[in-house]
Design a protein that fits this description.
The chain is 41% helix and 17% strand. It is built from 29 helices and 22 strands. Strand 3 (105-106) and strand 4 form a beta hairpin. The radius of gyration is 30 Å and the shape is globular. The chain has four domains: 12-174, no CATH class; 192-265 and 458-520, Rossmann fold, CATH 3.40.50.300; 311-387, no CATH class; 529-674, Rossmann fold (3-Layer(aba) Sandwich). It is an alpha/beta fold and 675 residues long. The strands form five sheets. It has a six-stranded mixed sheet with strand order 3-4-2-1-5-6, covered by helices on one side. A six-stranded parallel sheet has the order 9-8-12-13-7-14. The protein binds adenosine-5'-triphosphate (ATP). Residues 172-173, 181, 184, 187-189, 192, 208, 210-216, 491, 494, 525-526, 625, 627, 655 line the site of adenosine-5'-triphosphate. Adenosine-5'-triphosphate is lined by residues 172-173, 181, 184, 187-189, 192, 208, 210-216, 491, 494, 525-526, 625, 627, 655.
Length: 675
């Protein structure tokens, strides 16, 4: 039992004072915005600088907008007079009281009215505890209704008493879900905060059961890093990679709500190419294996032909010759020391340089322009094309997948004969231009592209549902953060692809971040305990090494299992309650279920549709990462039968519910569930 009752009565004078601080902060924010609006870009010298400055000013004005429905601050810290920061230095310059909110607000004389949640001093709001008060004597959490500050609760940290659960946190978690995902700045938990605030240099990998806040934490870490390393990351960029577009549209407003609008959010397909030709999972599995990297590298370099001729460059009456052995020496010295395309360019330049040397030997004094002209001349170009041919990734992969002898030569002992046979197209495409590529091919093409030309690296990459990525896809993502770091999020139990991983260590290695730290989130914020326990019956079959997940939400009476597919009835029951409804169905049943629900206004999940529907039919393969208040799962046996890792798909589907889960089945339930 908690020994401390949280905010039993709210004293109205204290509440009024806090409301006054809110009003003062709002007015100050308005003044900051008015000031930003009054600034002129005219001061900049030329029109280009003016345009850049104007766009910066516009961004600043937009960032200073006050959204009346969003609390400007959500917490307050009162520090002990002799508070010291972590370095042991006294924080004399800090006010005794700080308000923690979404952004900095000052009163025009640099007195802070609200401090950004990401600032170092705000850390205590998330981390301080009676055991380690971090110099804080009282933490106050505010409750809002609409934009109105209506409540608060206090946690005395200096008195050494145990603190009970926060009602405001409980309410936030219990709140019915409508529309897209919201930020969690007001209620980030200490273990989540550790991850959010880990340093930019550190790659972090988070294993967590469904609903433990992995996605939320990843997005908040991006916002934190952008705040802490604004300039550096503005240059190098931050990117979020999610499993599908439905998921991206669900999470799309979290970062903008935190003031971060310049973050790319995409899928692996969006990044590597929207290729989706159907493919046997066994073939995809071979193509996804990291051994393909060596095969591709050899395949590319096998295109280099041993030079058997030299080059002759004619200028006026003179002929300048580079002998065949000299060409061989140049090629040999370049091979393996550069990427393919720069190597091609370097070969032309080196040949031209030799011609130049010959010219000088003859007493001429050619300059750099002559060298460029020679490098671009017909004989040099012809030789380079013959020896170091111009290639596209598609050309190389087309040859590899249609020519068994070439594949064997490139594969050496890296792939077995059976694997090579699997890789060769049953019906080869006429040319690389007409080839239809699969999702697995997209990662191979990307690998080849990088062997030809270096892929630029971003400053930070957040990869969600990372358990689903192949080794080759991880390599593709890894090169996009090779000069930076990553946040890798996932759940080994939710792996549904032919190449789903069973080890985070291996994920980090293929990502090129072997030093990354693996950490775990264990407390579920979404799924009621009863539902989570039910879904966890599948764990021994899909991820036997994982501990059963825990839920913060008791949710008694949240689970209903019914024989028969009375979908419309279940939907009507859910419609009578508050919140969103997801009817998750085997992909093949989408049309039938839509017919069964014809009398109720509904939609089939469409990531591109702006329109929102309370009642949504969700194909099982798109449910990953999403959540609904009420979930109706139709015919689990078909969801399991539809794909090789169908049981894991069912685990994903059963863990989307915030308030209630209704399982409808005609066919017997999978035996693991019936247990
Ligand atoms: N500290 C928190 N305070 C309030 N809500 C939270 C907190 N952490 C997570 N949540 C909420 O819990 C829900 C689940 O979070 P999230 O989607 O990030 O989990 P996940 O671990 O990515 O789940 P999954 O593995 O199913 O994709 C979301 O609605 C999120 O806003």
């Amino acid at each position: 039992m908690p020994t401390h009752e949280l905010a039993p009565d709210i004293p109205t004078d204290v509440l009024a004072a806090e409301q006054a601080h809110l009003a003062e902060s709002r007015a100050a924010l308005k003044a900051m915005r008015a000031h930003a609006q009054s600034l002129s870009a005219d001061a900049a010298g030329d029109w280009v600088s003016q345009q850049i400055l104007q766009s910066l000013l516009d961004q600043r004005v937009a960032a200073l907008a006050d959204h009346p429905d969003t609390p400007l601050f959500f917490g307050r810290l009162d520090r002990a007079p002799d508070a010291r920061d972590e370095s042991g230095e006294e924080q004399a310059e800090l006010p005794a009281t700080i308000y923690v909110g979404r952004r900095h607000v000052h009163d025009g004389h640099s007195k802070p009215l609200v401090i950004d949640w990401r600032a170092p001093v705000s850390r205590a709001f998330y981390q301080a505890s009676p055991a380690d008060p971090m110099g804080i004597v009282r933490r106050r959490r505010f409750g809002y209704h609409g934009g109105e500050l209506t409540a608060f609760e206090d946690e005395p940290l200096g008195e050494g008493v145990e603190i009970g659960p926060s009602k405001i946190l409980t309410e936030e978690i219990e709140r019915p879900r409508t529309g897209p995902m919201r930020d969690i700045v007001a209620t980030i938990q200490p273990d989540q905060d550790e991850i959010v605030r880990s340093t930019l240099a550190q790659t972090v990998c988070v294993q967590g059961a469904p609903g433990t806040g992995k996605t939320a934490v990843g997005l908040h870490r991006a916002a934190y890093l952008l705040f802490t390393h604004r300039e550096r990351l503005a240059r190098s960029g931050v990117m979020i990679v999610g499993p599908n577009r439905a998921f991206l549209s669900y999470i799309s407003s979290v970062l903008p709500a935190l003031g971060e609008v310049k973050v790319d959010q995409t899928t692996v397909a969006g990044l590597l190419g929207e290729h989706a030709a159907p493919e046997d999972p066994l073939v995809s599995a071979v193509k996804g294996d990291a051994r393909m990297a060596a095969v591709l590298e050899r395949a590319l370099w096998l295109h280099i032909v041993k030079p058997t001729e030299g080059v002759v460059f004619t200028k006026g009456a003179y002929r300048y010759r580079v002998a065949d052995y000299e060409v061989r020496e140049i090629v040999a010295s370049l091979r393996g020391t550069t990427r393919y395309n720069p190597g091609r360019a370097a070969l032309a330049q080196r040949l031209a340089h030799m011609v130049l040397v010959r010219m000088e030997q003859r007493g001429e004094s050619p300059d750099d322009r002559v060298q460029d002209a020679v490098a671009r001349s017909k004989p040099v170009k012809q030789l380079v094309d013959a020896v170091w041919p111009k290639l596209t990734p598609e050309q190389v992969l087309h040859r590899l997948l249609s020519d068994p002898a070439f594949l064997a030569q490139a594969a050496k002992t890296d792939l077995t004969a059976e694997e090579q046979e699997l890789l060769i197209w049953r019906k080869p495409y006429r040319s690389w231009k007409s080839a239809k590529w699969s999702a697995a091919d997209a990662a191979l093409l990307d690998e080849l592209r990088d062997l030809m030309e270096r892929t630029p690296s971003l400053g930070h990459l957040v990869v969600d549902e990372a358990q689903d990525l192949s080794e080759m896809q991880l390599r593709a993502l890894g090169r996009r953060c090779r000069n930076g770091s990553a946040t890798v999020l996932g759940d080994l139990a939710q792996g549904t692809t032919p190449w789903s991983t069973s080890s985070w260590k291996s994920v980090l290695e293929h990502l090129g971040q072997p030093e990354g730290e693996v950490t775990e989130l264990t407390l579920g914020f979404r799924v009621p305990r009863e539902v989570l326990d039910y879904a966890a019956r599948l764990l021994p079959s899909i991820a036997p090494d994982l501990a059963a997940p825990r839920s913060l939400r008791p949710g008694a009476g949240s689970l209903t299992i019914r024989q028969g597919l009375a979908i419309a009835q279940a939907a009507e029951e859910a419609l009578a309650k508050e919140g969103s409804i997801g009817v998750i169905v085997p992909d093949a049943l989408v049309a039938d279920v839509s017919k069964a629900l014809a009398d109720l206004p509904h939609a089939v999940l469409d990531p591109d549709a702006a329109e929102e529907h309370r009642l949504l039919i969700v194909p099982a393969t798109l449910a990953k990462g999403l959540e609904y208040d009420h979930v109706i799962v139709v015919e689990p046996a078909d969801i399991v039968a539809a794909e090789p890792r169908g049981l894991a798909r069912l685990y994903v589907v059963l863990t989307r519910a915030v308030t209630s889960l209704t399982v409808l089945h005609d066919k017997p339930l999978p035996e693991q569930l019936a247990a």
